[in-house]
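Narrative summary of target 7.
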Amino acid sequence: MKSFLKSHTKQAELEYPCLKTKKDTEGHTIVLFSSFREGTCVHTTRPQNFVGDYSTNWGEEFFEPFTGELVLKN
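Modeled conformation, tokenized:
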């Protein structure tokens, strides 16, 4: 048996503002981050979050960059 370790390239630093997403067993949330850990919820299916929720303490380490399309409508 052989094992190999592939080196990972350093991820480019994110520029703010940016959209990030988090999916888990409780639902799906997308946050518009204005700076590290600070931002506004723009989409959610989680019962404890609401669109418009603002926080300076989002657990950004649990989010990943959102690459889809988000449509906002009145």
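The first strand starts at residue 18 and ends at 24.
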